[in-house]
Specification:
This protein is mainly β. The chain is 3% helix and 40% strand. Strand 19 and strand 20 form a beta hairpin.
């Protein structure tokens, strides 16, 4: 499809073939101030942001081209911005620049720059109408296919940082789901096998007969855009950290991240359902609709005393 249309090809050659994607919109980007300890994970300060584009793997020194023709608006130490008109622009990160501000550039023709040493990828951000949008959504970066199913690995009930037994829940509880997706095309080097975030996470509560008690609810949705970074810990649960995470002076080389998603923006009030036994079903969905689910049985017991159902 023409690079001047709504969809566009890849910023590295070959332009009309998919390349490995090692990071997607919404991935956690965490840099902790303190060393790697449980206390740091649960309460440590630092920089916590949503990944604002896609990371396309390519060797250092690879030439990067604009995906849509336009005018260079920014040439910074680590990124280049191109305005393509109609309220749309693109950012290309981790490049040694080969263009200047104000220059007109042509898709598939003008070399914006080359991938910096030790970067091994170009980060692509798409902005439309002043809002970051998902380059992997249908009708954007093309061709792109995804045939891997996301995985919901675990579901936890927590209160005041401690894990609760699902056999006995009362009052307000935090519910987090550990969930991952994985790139369809193998990522080379040390990033091979590293997870990415699912595009969508939903949940519902049903009784033992399979009847919905709490209708399906969206917990996290990165399919089109991302929340404000100030809300990071409202969408990710404490204990989350990114691939190759930084903990103070420690760089976790080749260590995969841990993605815990908060199912609700504030603790779930178990008094919103009658005392009883239920199944919580969490479903993770990727940008192409592939899904993976997990359920966790739990008991609500808000009435006085400790005797079971």
């Amino acid at each position: 499809m023409s690079p001047s249309g709504t969809s566009y090809g890849w910023p590295v050659e070959p332009f009309d073939a998919a390349h490995p994607v090692r990071g997607v919109l919404g991935d956690p980007r965490t840099v902790f101030n303190d060393p790697p300890t449980p206390q740091t994970l649960l309460s440590g300060g630092g920089s916590f942001t949503f990944h604002f584009g896609v990371d396309i793997s390519a060797p250092d020194g690879t030439a990067v081209f604009p995906v849509v023709s336009g005018k260079v608006t920014h040439v910074e130490s680590d990124w280049i911005g191109v305005d393509t008109g109609g309220g749309r622009s693109f950012q290309y990160w981790h490049l040694d620049a080969a263009v200047t501000t104000g220059q007109q550039v042509q898709a598939r023709t003008t070399t914006l720059g080359t991938i910096k040493a030790d970067a091994a990828h170009v980060h692509l951000t798409e902005i439309s109408g002043g809002r970051i949008v998902n380059p992997l959504a249908a009708g954007h970066l093309t061709p792109y296919a995804d045939n891997t199913d996301p995985e919901v690995r675990s579901i936890l009930f927590r209160a005041q940082g401690g894990v609760l037994l699902p056999n006995f829940l009362r009052g307000s509880v935090e519910i987090v789901a550990e969930a991952y997706d994985f790139p369809t095309l193998p990522v080379p080097g040390a990033w091979q096998g590293m997870p990415v975030a699912p595009a969508l996470l939903t949940w519902l509560i049903q009784d033992l007969g399979g009847n919905a008690v709490v209708a399906e609810t969206v917990a996290v949705d990165f399919r089109t855009t991302i929340p404000d970074n100030a809300l990071f810990w409202s969408y990710y649960g404490r204990g989350s950290y990114q691939n190759f995470c930084v903990f103070g002076p420690h760089f976790s080389w080749a260590q995969p991240g841990c993605y815990l998603f908060a199912l609700t923006r504030k603790p779930f009030d178990t008094k919103s359902v009658p005392d009883g036994v239920y199944d919580l079903v969490v479903t993770a969905t990727d940008i192409r609709g592939n899904q993976g689910s997990r359920s966790r049985r739990f008991t609500v017991h808000n009435r006085p005393g400790w005797i079971g159902s």
